[in-house]
Specification:
Number of domains: 3
CATH class of the largest domain: Alpha Beta
Number of strands: 7
Largest sheet: 5 strands, parallel
CATH superfamily of the largest domain: P-loop containing nucleotide triphosphate hydrolases
Oligomer: single chain
Radius of gyration: 21 Å
Strand content: 5-15%
């Protein structure tokens, strides 16, 4: 089995729009193909990157903007790709549009955005751009205006139908992997992680890797989130440098993921594994909010993340 297929999020990544679990309003925007550049925005785990890859196909360019952050990526790599003639053809014999995916587009610099503005205009006749981001407010207006911006965040009206589809998807994956989930447990799993389907599937795999092939509601009282190893470090009396080293190794380029984990998952972790420490949750969330906000104004987010880790280390060991 390949490494990719050993990670269930990748193994079960949708291959077609019909496989996606999306509000009808989003499907209606894209089912006719790319008529314009599109920017998909919303919280993590909703399927933005999966949809972008489906719309783009296999032979187009993918840029992870949280890794390839330099403006030279635009001036060289993207521009070179767009400049070369397309070798693919549509059914009517016309040359196929090139497509560039700009994943995690909210993580780039002002210089990057300025370079992209000119690049989008220069190649408008031959190339379509698909961007994804979590924070639409970090995308300048002059860039937003060049995209059809599609909100992936689910409304209350969306939720009822989508929860049912999430349950069916998790049941299908569990069956394929030889896992039995009691009905009350599967509903609880989906509700615990909704609308983040990626975290839902990650939880399912984490539980399976622990040797559990039957999941009961009682099993859900244990914390098995994907950031458990990080949180454990704070309560294993690890030194600050050890925690910082772990952060640097696992979250450089994905600092926002760590910030979100401390705001979203840390409370659940405390409740399930360190209930006697629940009194630190309020101060911990305040620290998370403070340093996550500050991180939006610097190019190198590892420094404010390290500052958050330093303060949390003092808090959990006081």
């Amino acid at each position: 089995m390949s490494i990719k297929n050993s990670i269930w999020v990748e193994k079960y990544r949708p291959k077609t729009i019909e496989d996606m679990i999306l509000p009808e309003r989003v499907v209606n925007k894209v089912k006719g193909g790319l008529q314009n550049h599109i920017l998909l925005y919303g919280t993590a785990g909703l399927g933005k990157t999966s949809l972008a890859k489906i719309l783009a196909g296999e032979n187009d360019m993918y840029i992870n903007c949280s890794v390839e952050t330099g403006v030279d990526t635009v001036r060289n790599k993207i521009t070179d790709f767009c400049s070369n003639i397309s070798l693919s053809f549509d059914g009517d014999g016309s040359r196929r549009q090139k497509i560039v995916i700009l994943d995690e587009f909210d993580g780039v610099s002002d210089a990057y955005f300025k370079a992209m503005r000119g690049t989008i205009e220069m190649f408008a006749g031959t190339t379509r751009f698909i961007a994804t981001c979590n924070y639409i407010q970090k995308i300048p207006d002059h860039i937003q205006s060049r995209f059809d911006c599609i909100d992936f965040n689910f409304t209350k009206e969306d939720e009822t139908n989508l929860v049912k589809q999430y349950i069916k998807r998790i049941h299908k994956i569990a069956k394929a992997e030889g896992i039995t989930i009691e009905p009350k447990a599967i509903l609880k799993i989906v509700k615990n992680y909704f609308p983040d389907l990626r975290s839902t599937i990650t939880f399912l795999q984490s539980t399976f890797l622990e040797g559990n092939t039957t999941i009961t509601p009682e099993d859900l009282d244990r914390f098995t989130g994907e950031h458990k190893e990080l949180f454990d470090l704070f309560f294993n009396k690890s030194q600050y440098f050890d925690i910082y080293s772990y952060i640097y190794k696992n979250y450089v380029g994905n600092e926002d993921e760590a910030f979100i984990a401390f705001g979203k998952d840390f409370g659940e972790y405390l409740a399930k594994t360190q209930p006697e420490k629940l009194n630190i949750l309020g101060p911990a969330i305040s620290l998370q909010a403070e340093w996550h906000y500050k991180s939006q104004f610097v190019a190198d987010k590892i420094s404010p993340l390290a500052a958050l880790v330093f303060n949390l280390h003092k808090l959990t060991n006081s």
